[in-house]
Amino acid sequence: TTTTTTTTTTMMTTMTTTMKPTTVVRCHAPSRASAAKAAAKATTTNAATSRVVPAAVGGRRRRCAGVARAIATEETFEYQAEVHRLMDLIVNSLYSNKDVFLRELVSNASDACDKLRFTSLSDSSVMAGNEEMRIKIRGDPESKTLTIEDTGIGMSKEDLVSSLGTIARSGTAKFMEMLKSQSDGENLIGKFGVGFYSAFLVADKITVTSKNPSDTATWVWESEINSSSYTVKESEEALTRGTKIVLHLKEGCEEYATGEKLSSLVKTYSEFISFPIDVWAKQNKEKEVEDTASTQALKEAWTKKKIEAEAKGEEFTEPEPKPVMKKEYEQVENWSTANNDKPIWVRSPKDVEQESYNEFFKSTFKEFLDPLANTHFAVEGDIEFRSILFVPGMAPFEQQDMMQKSRAIKLFVRRVFISDEFDESLLPRYLTFIRGVVDSSDLPLNVSREILQESRIVRVIRKRLVRKTFDMLKDIAARDNDDYDTFWDNFGRNLKLGVIEDSDNRKNLADLLRFTTSKSGNEGKLRSLEQYVTDMPEAQKSIYFVAADNRAAAEASPFLEKLMQKGFEVLYLIDPIDEVAMANLATYKDTPIVDASKEALDLGDEDEAEKAKRAELAEEFKTLTTWMKECLGDQVEKVEVSNRLTDTPCVLVTSKFGWSANMERIMKAQAMGDNRAQDYMKGKKTMEINPSSPVIAQLRKQKDADEALAKDNCQLLFDTALLTSGFTVDSPAEFAARVFKLMTAQAITEGEAPPGGAIDPEIV
Q1: DSSP string spanning 498-510?
Q2: Whole-model pTM?
Q3: Is-contact 511 528, C-beta < 8 A?
Q4: 172 falls in which pLDDT band (50, 70, 90)?
Q5: How far apart are CA 708 and CA 711, in angstroms?
Q6: How far is residue 197's CA from residue 463's CA, in Å, rounded to a whole number?
């Protein structure tokens, strides 16, 4: 019989009541016409269900009353209209990993135990019959079922209908509203009501048996994945208290009935739940058995001695040897607690020894070296979370893999493991070498990458984690040992990447940078920018650097001649990422950072006499520089007198905003580089000449005496300047021909020409 009622909401719910003697009996609904007539007649109240039904139905019910009193009544309820679509969404979209279903159900069971504990504070009778609060998980591979049972608060019939029959309704959230004035209530886990339905990821049928202390009956809730309804009936099985969920596993999900798989999932996701979780699984049990071979050998030796003694007529008093026992192991199925460990991060830092931190770090993150540093802290207020962060003692063998997916931060919600794949949501990319645990009290259990990206909670957590990380690194840097050198060797590039990517924290990162400099000495001691600025001469107004492939090349760079003469320290940038990082940093404590290979190099304060002398030299060599520009054409932007050279005849410097020679070489080496970018990013070259160099003086004379020879030597000077300045020669063969020609001319001048005369070099 079908009765349609209008609820106070806008949703329409159809409820079918079925009488069940030995099997379920479903009565056919009348036609629309007869139903309308029946509705117009007087109504009668069905005492069994406390619902108003048509009179015709009441009569039919009375005829079945004798049977109804003797049996349990099963009621079938229809889900709300949109539930079927939502169920499909949950199963196929909300959860991408099947394993999380057990995490959700265990979390619900933990909530039930928490509710029982809170309720018992005001009503101790709810604990009657069984004061133990536990969670038990048992799989049955033969019947393909999985049972999760808890001794928590349990559910009444109304709870089953309201909590399990309404998708996205959180019984825990409702309970928390009642406890919002009690801080202990915040220990509850579930706040999002769809967790239970994740069980349909692995099950096609779910049976829930539950008993609440306030209800005298035990109730059974049952539903199937493709059904739009669920049934609730009184259970023939009586529970003392709590809930038992039986999952009938889908085909292909049989592994979730094995103890090994279940133990692994509990260890992964629910290891730190505050209530014991027992899993029925195989265990290796030690037993003692007789070692028959060893026992036989001893007995044979004993018997031989006895016979020999008797043959000699001697008295034999040695006792007969006892059986030799040995240990064997057999696999037996038994209950074992899978979550014995209390999470270290919930303890007070002052109660945790350093050795405990080290062991936790090595066991959790599969490391074999102690961490260089760790920090343990809790944040309370509007947003609450606890965290432990570690600086590893060494970098992974594959640095690139570390940057891609490091699984650096393990995210927990109320001690329940969520994921370790949210690194960039919790830490910037350059800090993913940090290892740690974050346990939030405010995030939902079914947190996703999209939720993290939009969450204000996560932004607060991320900001605090970054701050604590910098505090750890500064602490290492302040130590009077070589710990920071070890850290820099392993993770220095990460901090340089941070200078490029994280503009908000460049100031903090700049203090942590280390470089080899012209004052590092033979041992190559690294120096900080703070040390550089502190040791600057009064006349020095900038921080200078030169980029090269290695330290030897940097020390031999002609760009440093005048700087070294003045006693200015120079940073050697020998890592490909260094130059980009310094370009992004630009200044340190209001001191500009300058590339010594760029044009218009500022060498500090210059008095009037020095300015006048420079202007005079520029005017004196104006004719030569103009002529050299004409000879070299588009190869250079201009030729001018240098203020940075003391010995080298000439160098090539680049414009301020273009690539340096070092950067141009790096970009050319990129396998997937953009050739179009090279055309406009290449720095325009300026040739600077040293007016005090004998080579320049000789070229000046040749220009007037033998212009053809002077042009060849001018081009040769340009080619050599390319090499000494860090560029590559466009035509090595032509460069070699000029060198050979010069060598041949010198040989002729010195009278060492071969008998057949000079040999013209062949251009290959």
Answers
A1: HHHH-GGGHHHHH
A2: 0.69
A3: yes
A4: low
A5: 5
A6: 34
Q: Which two tokens stand for residue 450?
A: 């999209």
Cα(437)–Cα(418) distance, integer angstroms: 11
Structure tokens at 636: 């250079």
Which residue in this structure is represented by tokens 């999380």?
Answer: 100
Q: How far apart are the first and last CA of the chain?
A: 103
* Number of other CB atoms surrounding residue 273 within 10 Å: 24
Rg (CA), the chain: 42
From CA 596, how far away is CA 565, in angstroms rounded? 14
Mean pLDDT along residues 557-575: 91
Instruction: Write the secondary structure of 611-672 as one string of H (helix), E (strand) and C (coil).
Output: HHHHHHHHHHCHHHHHHHHHHHHHHCCEEEECCCCCCCCEEEEECCCCECHHHHHHHHCCCC
Question: What single DSSP character describes residue 522?
Answer: T
Side-chain-facing half-sphere of 500: CA atoms under 13 Å: 13
The more confidently predicted of residues 166 and 375 is 375
Site of tokens 């990319």: 429
Total number of residues shown for the chain? 764
Query: Could you give the CA distance from residue 160 to residue 166 in angstroms, rounded to a whole number?
Result: 9
Tokens describing residue 443: 């995030």
The rounded distance, in Å, linking the Cα atoms of 635 and 684 is 9
DSSP annotation of 25: B
Which residue pairs, CB below 8 angstroms and at least 24 apart, start in 695-699? 695/649, 695/650, 696/621, 696/624, 696/649, 696/650, 699/624
How many angstroms separate the CA atoms of 393 and 290, rounded?
A: 49
Contact 560, 596 (CB under 8 A): yes
